[in-house]
Amino acid sequence: MLYGVIVALPSVGLRLIYAIIILVHDIKGSSSDFPKSLAAMVCMSVVPEMITVVILVIVGLNTRNISKAYARIATAEEQPLGQVYNPKPRDYNGT
């Protein structure tokens, strides 16, 4: 899960940088229309969010059963090597 967060961080950083550019643009009252254009907003704000969500959903789906896998490994490690599970033998009467 941590690797998924590390992979998603650059897209979150890109969106943060774009938000800072918009903030500075509004404070200075610059005449440039690039930061406020629809294309820039979609490319710098919406797309990184979508990339982040997709990455984290994929990582979440891949790690959803990890506790069950670790439980199976732990129970397998508790038995000594070479020992096979032998249930209690039954007699022919069914007891």
Which helices and strands occur, and which strands form pairs?
Layout: H1 2-28, H2 38-62, H3 66-78
Helix pairs in contact: 1-2
What Rg is obtained from the alpha carbons, in whole angstroms?
Answer: 27 Å
Structural class given helices, strands, pairing? mainly alpha
User: What average pLDDT do the residues reach?
Assistant: 78
Number of helices: 3
Strand content: under 5%
What's the domain count? Answer: 1
Low-confidence stretches: none
Shape: rod-shaped
Largest sheet: none
Question: How many DSSP-defined strands?
Answer: 0
Order of helices and strands: HHH
The N- to C-terminal Cα distance equals: 49 Å
Q: Specify the helix fraction band.
A: 55-70%
Structure keywords:
95 residues, rod-shaped, 3 helices, mainly alpha
Summarize the structure.
The chain is mainly alpha-helical.
Describe the fold and architecture:
- By secondary structure, this protein is mainly alpha-helical.
- The chain has one domain.
- Helices cover 68% and strands 0% of the residues.
- It is built from 3 helices and no strands.
- It has helices at residues 2-28, 38-62, 66-78.
- Helix 1 runs antiparallel to helix 2 (38-62).
- The longest helix is centred in the first third of the chain and has 27 residues, at 2-28.
- The chain is rod-shaped.
- The relative contact order is 0.12.
